[in-house]
Amino acid sequence: MKKLSVIIILTTCILSLQATRIGSPTTITLGNIFLPSTTTSITSNSFGNSTNLTYSILEAGRYQLRDSIIFNPSTAKTSIYINSNDVILDLGGQTLTLKRDNATENILGIEIASNCSNVTIRNGQITGFSGESIKIGLGCTNIIIENIHINNAKNTGIVFAGTQNNKIISCSLKNILIANISGLGNSTLKAYGIKITHAEGITIEDSKIIGMRTGSTQNDSYGCHITNSKNIVLNDVHSGSHDGAECCAFYVKNSSIIQMNNCEAAGCTSYTNSTTGASGFCFNSSNGCILDECISIGHTGKYSSYGTRFSSCTGIIMKKCNSLGNQLSSDNVENSHCCGFYSEQGSGNTWHNCEASSNSGGSADGSFVAGFLLDNGECQSTITHCIAQSNGDLTFTARSYGFWLSNATADINHCHIKDCSALNNCSGTQGGAIGFYDDRVDSTLNLFVDNYAYGNLGSTTTTNYNVTIAPPGVFNLTDANSGNILDLASKPLYYNISITN
């Protein structure tokens, strides 16, 4: 009996140990992600003997690159292919590189297949790929990319390739550096740092996009390009030193609820007569967006240069934003123009506590520079507590305007300029300088309230306030030379202006 008891106890212990071993955790939980506790190593041998085969991740798990890889495919189109949910790919500080003399076109660095979720890519460099360096397929959700450096590619840094019926949702990019993406050598390629199409709930923060270039070709370049998307947030993102035909640091089209906080657009150059030209922040047919404490500086265009440019936009708010030092190139063409803040064909847009300064024009016939320009049918928009100063240059003939409501193409209606200052805007020989200008023949629908103008200097036209009223004529509210307030007893009621000069 005693012997039987011992056997039973031993058997129970063995079963208990087996149960413990069988039931012991073989997975760990990260939120809703269940991953094996072990990590699969990826080495050069994982890509075949000649490092020319795609490494595919088809199961959930942790994967880490142990070697720097020089990928040299002959037929393969992707270096690392992920087609599984719940994956962490850690590049481990290594570099994934397309072999420099590989002639195969459109080779992808890392591709996440359609409809994957809970995938993280982090901690490494991706260099020299001829296709997208990282591609997120349609329908993906909860993708995280962090601590990644992409450079010397020939197409796009990171692309979110959603569609109208298969949007990409809830993704984040953090601490990303994308540099030197180039369409050079290929007559059809545009250059994109980050390209987002049909996506929702994307966050980009603490990142830099530098050097998207197509040279003097007819192709365009974009730092961050967002289309057909909503609920996109950019925090502390720098985009600059790009060039091309149309060149833009931040481009948004057909999108809504885009928020940019403390973002910087710098040094875009347009080499052609593109209407959009060089611009820091360019929004087309978008609505409900906010730009807060952003800066646009040092863009150069042959035909046009803009700190910010809105076209057919509704309800965009700019707060505490600056547009500084944008200019026309020395070979600027007829009717070329440079604007700190520009909006056309939109409605209900707002600029508050913004500054346009040191933007300069050129010497070609018809060229001009403006701190703030509402154009081509803009209506119901508001500019408050803003400053336009030192725009224009005494060495150039371009006309200079602090605030201009231009009605050349379509009337500007029900716009409101309040508590703004136009200071020291100037023009050289044959040019004119105007602090506040509404050129509509019957400007009874726009409101100027409590504005200040001083020292706007032009060789042919020197007027701090210049407003055209019916019958046609110039209603000069102040004289730039005398510094005296004119008799405003006969001013139109809709101006309601009190000024100190």
Descriptive overview:
The chain has one domain: Pectate Lyase C-like (3 Solenoid), CATH 2.160.20. It is built from one helix and 46 strands. The strands form four sheets. The chain has a 24-stranded parallel β-sheet that branches. A hairpin with a 5-residue loop joins strand 45 (461-468) and strand 46. The protein is elongated, with a radius of gyration of 29 Å. The termini are far apart. 49% of the residues are buried. Residues 1-33 and 467-501 have low confidence and may be disordered.
Give the biggest beta sheet: 24 strands, parallel
If you average the pLDDT, what whole number results?
83
Low-pLDDT runs = 1-33, 467-501
CATH class: Mainly Beta
CATH topology: Pectate Lyase C-like
**What's the alpha carbon Rg, rounded to whole Å?**
29 Å
Gross morphology is elongated
Number of alpha- plus pi-helical segments? 1
Helix content: under 10%
Count of beta strands: 46
What's this model, at a glance?
The chain has 501 residues and is mostly beta strands. It is built from 1 helix and 46 strands.
Helix and strand arrangement:
Blueprint: H1 2-23, E1 27-30, E2 33-36, E3 39-42, E4 55-57, E5 61-65, E6 69-71, E7 78-82, E8 87-90, E9 95-98, E10 108-112, E11 117-127, E12 134-136, E13 141-151, E14 156-161, E15 168-182, E16 191-197, E17 199-213, E18 221-227, E19 230-240, E20 243-244, E21 247-253, E22 256-261, E23 264-266, E24 269-270, E25 278-284, E26 290-292, E27 295-297, E28 300-301, E29 304-311, E30 317-319, E31 322-324, E32 327-328, E33 337-344, E34 350-352, E35 355-357, E36 368-375, E37 382-384, E38 387-389, E39 399-406, E40 416-418, E41 421-423, E42 432-438, E43 447-449, E44 452-454, E45 461-468, E46 474-475
Parallel strand pairs: 3-5, 4-7, 5-8, 6-9, 7-10, 8-11, 9-11, 10-12, 11-13, 12-14, 13-15, 14-16, 15-17, 16-18, 17-19, 18-21, 19-22, 19-23, 20-24, 21-25, 22-26, 23-27, 24-28, 25-29, 26-30, 27-31, 28-32, 29-33, 30-34, 31-35, 33-36, 34-37, 35-38, 36-39, 37-40, 38-41, 39-42, 40-43, 41-44, 42-45
Antiparallel strand pairs: 1-2, 45-46
